[in-house]
Write a structure and sequence with these properties.
This protein is of the alpha+beta class. The protein has helices at 10-14, 58-71, 116-130, 163-169, 172-187, 242-253, 263-274, 282-285, 288-308, 314-326; strands at residues 23-28, 36-42, 45-51, 91-93, 96-102, 107-108, 196-199, 208-210, 227-230, 237-240. The protein folds into two domains: 5-102, Phosphorylase Kinase, domain 1, CATH 3.30.200; 107-326, Aminoglycoside phosphotransferase (APH), C-terminal lobe (Aminoglycoside 3'-phosphotransferase, Chain: A, domain 2), CATH 3.90.1200.10. Mean pLDDT is 90; it is low at 217-222.
Length: 333
């Protein structure tokens, strides 16, 4: 059993949900940049324990858990939060919140190749259910991107950025130009025709688990596996459906140069998405480039915010700056 992270005891935490249960093994799961994530082998079955970032409040998590509780009965790809004997979906540990859910076996998705269509179909099925979730208020701490203060928010402070330091590592003028252009462009969008409902908020290949029997993308002659689970709902919020679509397109179908989409792969994604019965509206297609540029700007600024908090991340910031500067028309008809 690995040493507890930052004084955490994953086995003891798990027993807050399952008192007295035997814990047979604990291992840290990779990819938990913001959270401490563990796979738990127990008498109660395989589980995933997540000790959330300190900034995650009970109000934020309550919103996401309520959403998952509503959609999980209709989607095999969504795991609801497990409840303690007292009915809670979170427990407190060292001023942080912890959650528990069932472990789903599977491999992480891959860019391009045979995973494009399964990822698109899973997103279409998810959006079909999310569109029927009514009476949803905005999530605390997660404003709609069109309403976001792009210079000062809980993720970053543009006024506190050391411009000389940043300019030494990346092209800061790209960010400054995007900050002048993207927010007013979003504000000018007539959103009355755009589907608005809860979204995943971070839909990309590494937040998808595909059936364990499925081969990695690109293996000749192998039919792609379907998505077994959509994971990491940290960024879910009430917003345009288009944000999920644009993010998925960029994550799965972008060029190696990181400045656009591969048209044939984007067409495959949109065709598979629409095979679920949903239609990507003309108004949404026109916004793919803007939404992609806005999301890359968000990620670059988030990366700078992480560095303000003492985390390294120049490569991630640079990757997104290249995208911001290169995105114009993405060639999606």
């Amino acid at each position: 059993m690995p040493a507890p992270a930052q004084g955490l005891d994953p086995a003891e935490l798990t027993r807050r949900w399952f008192p007295g249960v035997a814990i047979e093994g604990v291992r840290r799961l990779e990819g938990g940049w913001m959270n401490d994530v563990f796979a738990i082998d127990s008498e109660a079955g395989p589980l995933v324990l997540r000790v959330l970032q300190p900034e995650a409040t009970a109000e934020m998590i309550s919103w996401s858990h309520h959403l998952l509780d509503r959609i999980a009965p209709r989607l095999s790809t969504v795991q609801p939060p497990l409840r303690t004997p007292g009915g809670a979906t979170t427990v407190e540990v060292n001023d942080r919140l912890a959650t528990l859910e069932r472990f789903v076996e599977g491999r992480l998705g891959n860019r391009a190749g045979s995973d494009i269509e399964p990822a698109a179909r899973a997103l279409g099925a998810l959006h079909a259910v999310l569109a029927e979730v009514d009476d949803v208020q905005p999530r605390s701490g997660y404003p709609r991107f069109a309403d976001l203060d792009w210079r000062e928010n809980r993720w970053w402070s543009w006024s506190r950025v050391d411009r000389e330091l940043v300019a030494f590592r990346v092209d800061i003028e790209v960010i400054e130009r995007a900050l002048e252009e993207v927010p007013p462009a979003l504000a000018s969008v007539d959103s009355t025709a755009l589907p608005l409902h809860p979204i995943h908020g971070d839909y990309h290949e590494e937040n998808l688990l595909l059936e364990p029997s499925g081969e990695p993308a690109g293996v000749a002659g192998i039919e792609a596996a379907e998505v077994a689970a959509i994971i990491d709902w940290d960024e879910c919020r009430l917003d345009w459906r288009m944000w999920d679509i644009a993010n998925a397109l960029w994550s799965l179908c972008r060029t190696e140069a990181n400045t656009g989409l591969v048209p044939s792969e984007a067409a495959r994604f949109l065709g598979a998405y629409e095979s679920t019965g949903l239609i990507v509206l003309p108004e949404e297609r026109m916004l793919i480039a803007l939404c992609t540029r806005a999301t890359r700007l968000f990620e670059a600024l988030w990366g700078l915010g992480e560095m303000q908090r003492g985390h390294a991340g120049w490569d991630y910031v640079q990757q997104n700056i290249i995208a911001i500067d290169g995105i114009e028309e993405l060639g999606v008809g």
